[in-house]
Design brief:
With 164 residues, this protein is α/β, with parallel strands linked by helices. The protein is 26% helix and 34% strand. The chain contains five helices and eight strands, in the order βαβαβαβαβαβββ. It has a five-stranded mixed beta barrel. Helix 2 packs parallel to helix 3. The longest helix has 12 residues.
Length: 164
Amino acid sequence: MVLTTPISDEMIAKMKTGDLFYLTGELFCGRDAVLPRIVESLRAGSGPDLKGSAIFHTAVSAAGVGPTSSNKLEIESSIAPLSAAGVRLHIGKGQLHEKTIRALEQYHSVYAVIPPVTALLGERMISKEIVGYSELGMEAFYKISVKEYPIIIAAAHGRSIYDE
């Protein structure tokens, strides 16, 4: 099934762990260097509009894109505040802590894992643009347009595929 950004609360309500989607549309990219800065900017009232958005836990480089571990402290601790700010889909790899899974439920967001297939994902990236923190190079905050990114919902509605 195709999932298109922006993502509505109604779509989130229909998702179940194990569902497979092909994500199309714009998504933000960030990992441990930039996500804490985005959270700080949101707290200061100057952050980006994230309503209905998706964030891919990755860096963008000439080699392509691939998921990084979402359970790194800097990344996982950003999931709740980013969800509160409107992010509906977090994409990465690895198991999240129970506290984070509960926060996803509280803010009507989900977490998906993506296969680490950098070349495939690069072919499905239509465009890329640095939207903040360019001094971080490939770990800057990017917005990319994608077509049919394969994702699997890994945590939704208080449940995780890692617990099944």
